[in-house]
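pasting for the record
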Amino acid sequence: MKLKAEYLPHYAMGTWMLIPTGDAPFQGIVKGNETFGFITQCLLQETSEEELAEKLLAAYDVDREQAARDVHETVERLRGIGAIGD
């Protein structure tokens, strides 16, 4: 899976955002925390939920269960707006 090109991760004033371009079907800004930003940045490259959880474990002091849950919730949120291509 990978973030579609029509969606751009952006960081401003302490908040991560996912901004759709004019070609995106979703019209709005999705805001998130540092974990959301980390995951959206990783999704610029082809990856899987398992790989994302491993990257999160390597970058943050979090247990495996929490990393997997955070990744899954973020991926489902992004799928819900059509931001991820499988």
